[in-house]
Amino acid sequence: MTTDALVVFGIVVLTLVLFVTERVPIDVTAIFIMVLLMLLGSDGVVNLTHISTAEGISGFSNPATITVLAMLILSSGISRTGVVQILGRKMAAFAGEDRDRQLLATIGVAGPVSGFINNTPVVAILVPVITDLAHAGKTSPSKLLLPLSYASMFGGMLTLIGTSTNILASDVSARLLGHPFSMFEFTSLGVIVLVAGSLYLMTIGQRLLPERVPVKDDYVQEYAIEEYLTEVIVEPDSPLVGTTVETAIDTVEFDADILQVVRDGEEFIEPLGHMMIREGDVLRLRADRETLQELVERDTLTLTGHPPQTGAELEPETEEAQTLVEVVIPRGSYLAGKSLASSTFRQRYDANVLAFRSRGETVRDHMDRRRIRVGDTLLVQAAPDSIDRLADNEDFIVAHEPDEPHYRTEKIPHAIAIMLGVVGFAAVPWAPLGGALASVTGVAAFEALAALSLPILVTALAGVVAMVVAGVMEPTELYDAVEWDVIFLLAGVIPLGMALEQTGGADLLGALVAATGLYLPAIGVLWVFYIATGLITGVISNNASVVLMLPVAVEAATRIGADPFSFVLAVTFAASTAFLTPVGYQTNLFVYGPGGYKFSDYVRVGAPLQLFLSVVTVAGIVALWGL
């Protein structure tokens, strides 16, 4: 092993460790790796990675990166029209209280739609729709939300644009083999995976899915925070009299929040910050027993003996809109990586956090100092207008549809026409079409059509312009629509894949894997790559696993005399369908909290599915493309 390859392997290991531990956000990790590659590259301190400065930053101008950026904007434009939500509600009406029909509706919407809209925003859009569907249909959301995530992954493999992983894999395939993916390159296999995966979810998977969240929509009981809720009366000689709600309790000293004020039989909720406390006020608090005892002794408060026990008691009787909602933290949220104390969440939204779920753990006390991570789900109490502001902000996914959603439904025809144009113009075989028309009509102009090539990059960017011109999106909304962490992640890991190729690291790993060909047939080696990619994707980003595994897969295929493109497809499908862990794919994180899942739930439901689809996918590749 050369020194250069050894250094790159060390950087790969460092990357994996940082991705798994999440000591810093993954996009920051990617940029750090990019800088490290350049420092150790041909223009840096010592040439060990063979990466020049131009190659180091090439990820930002890479066609895959720009295409993903454009597709994120287009997906956002579609979501702003409300077409996906409307479709979801129509399917909910069809489902009713029949669990099988509810599951079929969930898969039937998420799967096909994810083939044409990036599957990550599809799940973000449908989480509140499916949650409401479950509660209305007297079904635990846990029975539907994980299938929602999995179905979106199935659908993402229907077309090139279904997921950012496909776009990135197409670019790597073009660089390694000169064979980028066409729009419907693997649609036939994608349909097989969608059907097979759906059958699994409708049968075996349905029986393996737990009922973590109660059918009844009561968050106080679901999060088991009854013992943290209490009522106290402010005595005449209490030092709290004359203070504002915002300053009454020192949150640095006491882990407590004032949730409501009841005065003369009238209930007040947020915004409470500037409300003056009077004697006789009943304060509804969130506090543990030890903190409550200290507050009672110090501030001359009296327990009422009637603490709220349900979510309904924390909602004002005069308001029909619910004031308790779950809020999921997606990637790119300003709250990710921060604590409630260090952020301005409470002040910005006049909201209280009663508890939150983080990686399967429910946190009910000392929340202010806990770092919020991507996928965490906050149980938030806020006034209806604050909830609407949360729902309108792409920093959050509110797991409850607003009563009066603000969608641009009049722009639905424009948005659909633009997406059809983006897909259609990229999918049209211009060369054969132009040649045929020229030969039939004799019109020379059609020869120019035969030379025309419209890659998805061009049509997607044209679609972005069309979205703005047609009024589907405002110009200022373009920047908010981009998941910049994904863009920086792509820009950072692309040079790592190049370094793996240029230093011979991919050749070495490929040779090691190819050695299994002494004991396994080519189809066995192909299956090994599928399984290995799925396992790696379970702990790191799916985009990173594609960049790392594709060069190795191509080299291994070449050494055993197999078709490298078949191996490229196996790696791409495995990376885009990661079922084993909640951190392997962002859609899994989106449903982690609202579904009340534990880490083991993903293994129990996802492991048989991953194994089943490994056989289906590998067999499909061999049947359709050969070895």
Automatic annotation (TrEMBL):
Keywords: Membrane, Repeat, Transmembrane, Transmembrane helix, Transport. It comes from Haloplanus aerogenes. GO terms for cellular component: plasma membrane. It comes from the Archaea. It holds the Pfam family TrkA_C. The lineage of its organism: Archaea, Methanobacteriati, Methanobacteriota, Stenosarchaea group, Halobacteria. Residues 217-301, 312-396 form the RCK C-terminal domain. PANTHER family: BASIC AMINO ACID ANTIPORTER YFCC-RELATED (PTHR43652:SF2). This is SLC13 family permease.
